[in-house]
Amino acid sequence: MKTKIYIITFIMLILSCGQTNEKKNKILDKKQPVVKTFEQREKDRLKKRAKIEKEEKIDSIRLDKVLSDALKIASLEIKQNKFQKKYKVRPDNEYDVEVEINIGDYFIKNNPQLIIRRLEPNNVHIDIYSKDGNKFKKVLSHKQWNLTYVNDTIRDINGDNLKDFVINWYGATGCCLKGFSDVYLLRNDKKTFSKNFEFINPTFSPREKIIRGVTYGHPGHTEMYKYKWNGETVDTLEYVYYETIENEKKTGKIVISKKRAYSKDKKNIKKLNSIPAEYKKIEGFDWFTGNFLK
């Protein structure tokens, strides 16, 4: 009898241990994170990307409708030498878009141009039109992230006595001085514009047809540059930087070169004891020297 009891008890213990281990394994399985395969991750990424692209397409359709409506309003005033209108719309009840319509002699006298600005939560959209008979023809379109946009100006940048279009903006990320200007040159036909030229921390000198500026880098450890307009291209004249030895220690000499400081090609360089006077009045000069830190 005792033997039977022992056998039954032993069997129950085995079954109990099995159940206990099974429960433990289930608990452990629940606690362990699910590791996705590459295929699963890629599928999720593509799904998210498709969703973003769909939303962007919908936004684009909304904004195209806003632009189309603004163009209709402007077209009714095409014979006017000057016209301004500002209003706010909410396409599909999603978000507000501020619209500015301006007709005037902004670039060429006695030849009014149309500028339409659309300001939505994420971006600033600027479209410029020239008259083409009894309608407006688009000649420039620019989109700038709202967070970086500073302003836009109309001025002669390259010294050809034609007013150009310039968008000024400031980089949203990074450690250092990062003021940018995007330049569209008005062509000799006085209607169309060149491609976009982008400059960092520039100082424009239309009289000289020169652009001087400071490149991206830490204060006291960056370069200055000098470019020159050559029609619808820009020629690099020189870079200016401090001569350094080991551990970036400055020697006191200034290097003038057609190559950047980190270039391996050290040919055709000139060394000076001081910075050329032409650079001392440009915006960001104190950043180049690092003197503002003292």
From TrEMBL:
It comes from the Bacteria. InterPro entries: XAC2610_dom (IPR058087). This is VCBS repeat-containing protein. It comes from Flavobacterium endoglycinae.
